[in-house]
Amino acid sequence: SQTIHQWPATLVQPVGSPLSLECTVEGTSNPNLYWYRQAAGRGLQLLFYSVGIGQISSEVPQNLSASRPQDRQFILSSKKLLLSDSGFYLCAWKVSRRYNSPLHFGNGTRLTVT
Amino acid sequence: QQQVKQSPQSLIVQKGGISIINCAYENTAFDYFPWYQQFPGKGPALLIAIRPDVSEKKEGRFTISFNKSAKQFSLHIMDSQPGDSATYFCAAVGGTSYGKLTFGQGTILTVHP
Question: Cβ–Cβ of B93/A51 closer than 8 Å?
Answer without folding.
Answer: no
